[in-house]
Design brief:
Number of strands: 6
Strand content: 15-25%
Length: 158
């Protein structure tokens, strides 16, 4: 059972990555799919808890920009014995803004939201509790490149 946490700016390709890689095998939990619920964090926690309790692998598709944002997800995953995997979408504010401007309706966020997320975005580390970490880069034609974090990037010394 896997708990996959996507980390990156809005319009960085996280949802596209989910659809290409995990839609057939992993449940999706995304605050973007929740109604105008002001308690989205609580609802997200409940959905993750329910999936893990049922033994289902899942992907949490949100910006998850800070260590604190990821900590409760990681703790919940560990509680159920899930393998914790992170995918870090390399930040490119300019490219995210361009892709975001191509969105419509509720999918499009104000530019300030991208800038705010960029200021808060903290690169994940193994010491947070991830068993595996990957850096994702968007290649040409909407394809992605996934690169494992190198051992030099590990801060836990293992």
């Amino acid at each position: 059972m896997e708990l996959i946490i996507l980390i990156g700016l809005q319009a960085s390709g996280k949802s596209s990555w989910y659809r290409q890689q995990f839609a057939d095998t992993h449940q999706l939990v995304s605050k973007d799919l929740m109604s105008r619920n002001v308690r989205k964090a609580v609802q997200q926690h409940q959905l993750v808890d329910e999936a893990l309790l049922a033994g289902r692998s899942l992907v949490v598709d949100n910006t998850n920009p800070t260590i604190e944002d990821r900590a409760s997800l990681i703790a919940l995953g560990k509680q159920y014995g899930a393998e914790i995997i992170g995918y870090y979408f390399e930040p490119d504010v300019r490219a995210s803004l361009i892709r975001n401007r191509g969105r419509s309706g509720l999918e499009r966020v104000p530019d300030v939201a991208v800038y705010t997320a960029a200021k808060k975005l903290t690169r994940p580390t193994f010491s947070e509790g991830f068993e595996r970490l990957y850096t994702i880069r968007i290649a040409e034609e909407g394809k992605f490149t996934a690169l494992p974090f190198s051992e030099e990037e590990r801060v836990d010394g293992s």
